[in-house]
Amino acid sequence: MARTSEELETALATVTPDMYGGSYFGEGRDPLDRMGLSGYERYDRQSSNADAAAYLVWKWFDVTRVLDAGCALGFVVEALREVGVDARGVDISHHAVTHAAPGALGHVRQGSLTERLPFRDGELELVTVLEVLEHLSPDDVPAALRELRRIAGGYVLATIPSFGPNVSGRDGWYEGKVRPDRLAHYQTLDPSFAGPIPFADLAVDARGEPTEGHLTIASYAWWQQSFEHAGFARCHDTERHMHVDLARFGLTEFWSLYVFRVPGVGEPTAPVRSGHECEAQEKRWHLDERTGNPDDVAAALSRLSR
After folding, report:
1. Which tens digits make up the pLDDT trace of 96-142?
2. Which terminal CB of the chain, N or C, has fewer other CB atoms within 10 Å?
3. What's the alpha-carbon Rg for the chain, to the nearest Å?
4. Angstrom distance (rounded) from CA 262 to CA 153
């Protein structure tokens, strides 16, 4: 049965878009010469910021069953399992799940949020969706969020490239998300513009394909409303606290953070780990060696008093 399952997954991979094959994750690429193509110069646990993501989950949420949807090579799964979390992962890329990190082997599988995942309703206490949802088309987003709502019994932690005002953290931006010749136009739009950006205006790579495969670029307001339509509530206070960590790790300019909860579940507003535990874990994963912009740290701290 296992062999049949593996052969079936290999067959399915032949009809999966080739974009997320080995070259997307740095295989066979010259790290000094990307030539404007989408994908990673190198893709490893450090460059993927997997330890920072796992740290946020471990520090702020009292959970044991976690799914990383769009897990790629499973670095977040590997990191979470190191701190005792029963973490699993799914990814659309056959290459990714068959080349999983050692600590994620046996805990990741092929799957897509646009299809029914092999989990019971509400089975996962927390689902992470890190730099994933923007790879779906706007038409596919509602189905993906409904599937997230089905399997999530507590929380969703997401990072999604976004633009526009953000009451919980740093505002979003258009740079790198829209075509350079259309950037000035979007920068003059009223802040109430929600998107998504039309396909013709999306930034493209050297091959003329949407940069990094990003198909849905929208505002914070648009994503919040989309999650609310799926049955989630946004955790603004949690985000404000977590933005301090993002700023310390130098990630506020890269990650547009969202935290959502399902009805009846409380919003985390304090760490579930002691200061001593957090300090030790930051040293273990070398997060204490990361430096953020002091202005970003100050801005994140100031939001806590609002």
Report:
1. 999 999 999 999 999 999 999 999 999 999 999 999 999 999 999 99
2. N
3. 19
4. 7
